[in-house]
User: Fold this.
Amino acid sequence: MLTAARNEMLTRVGPGTPMGELLRRHWQPVGGASELDANPIKPLRLLGEDLVLYRDRGGRYGLIDRHCPHRRADLSYGWVEENGIRCSYHGWLMDETGRCLEQPYEDTVSPKPSKVGCDAKAYPVKECAGLLFAYLGPQPAPELPVWEPFTWANGFREIVLADVPCNWFQCQENSCDPVHFEWMHDNWGHRLRGGDSNAAPKHLKLKFEEFEHGFIYKRVREGQSEDDRYWTVGRVALWPNGFYLGSHFEWRVPVDDENTLSVAWFFVRVPKGREPYVQERVPTWVSPLKDANGRFITSHIINQDIVAWAGQGRIADRSKENLRSSDIGITMMRKRFFEELEAMAAGKEPAGVIRSANAAQCIELPNMTREINTEGITLAEFDEHPLLRLRLQRFPFHYGQPPEVRRAFVEAMGIAEG
Ligand code: FES
Ligand SMILES: [Fe+2]
Assistant:
């Protein structure tokens, strides 16, 4: 249980708030590069700040104040040029550093127009593995961590976004909550498919550890032993708002105190014999969350998670909880975040921030299924694998995969649609 004041510390993300400052010390994934193919400008609210993300015709990414530095028109209705984004109201042109390059009327009537003080707030953006990452913190920016899966070849990758109507921290608490798999995805999933039993293997034992990049949770369920990779390797919650499950990442990126952008990156290696496979473009799509009746869609794994996250309220009231031993991962995570907030207030660098370019280049994480992704398996082995067999049949994580993405996946895998 947490007091209201402690809960605010965990959940407030605006500029100047302790957690907002901690989150700003990390590069945050904000979308897919391919999103900007059709329209190179995207309005984006991040950590309580209204911004505009764009790619100019010179290929540079920018993330700047959504409001023009002139008289605050909405730059998401502007257009991009060779070098920057131009406001549609009076034509001011800004580049990716926020510098105001042109003020057409002033430039016409004045021999030496001064643009001092006319710059826009701007944040750096980097592309990696099809994702766009932004850094909203103080300079110098830390290294962008290149997680090992981003370097894997011969795979089909896709990025899925979802607009989750609740605070980011309750989403991230789910990254250290193994017991929910048994109930939310297994027993409830079974009932959603017409079943009528709570027959999923029970969790028998849990363990949580901290490592350099976050936390690892380990579990033993009925039918498993401590020799199983779920216990010997485990799964990973990344500092501060990531989750890694061996072939995919999820980040819970705060939009503001009451909204979260879920950014997920997926990888499936093509079956042996299909290499070399080079994916020209990593597709990005947005998963719808509600049905025609305004109820949450429950058919897919992360949609189910979202039912839990959003169901806790816009900002979960942690003064009304009853934490038990199933929640030791949650307690550990909160405690460590509070310690990190205190350390930051004392001038220390938060955990997980990487300053060494070498260290950031290809970061290996605990991974239960590494060889499947680095060495590959045959199509026959896919068919024998309980999870991967289904993965070929349908995208199980998010509702709403567009048909063109499915077609590209089927083509990459060399399987028949059916
Ligand atoms: S408000 Fe943007 S140019 Fe005037
Ligand atoms: Fe889940």
Observations:
- The mean pLDDT is 97.
- The first strand starts at residue 28 and ends at 32.
- The two ends are 49 Å apart (CA to CA).
- Residues 68, 70-71, 73, 87, 89-92 surround FE2/S2 (inorganic) cluster (ligand 1) (CB under 6 Å).
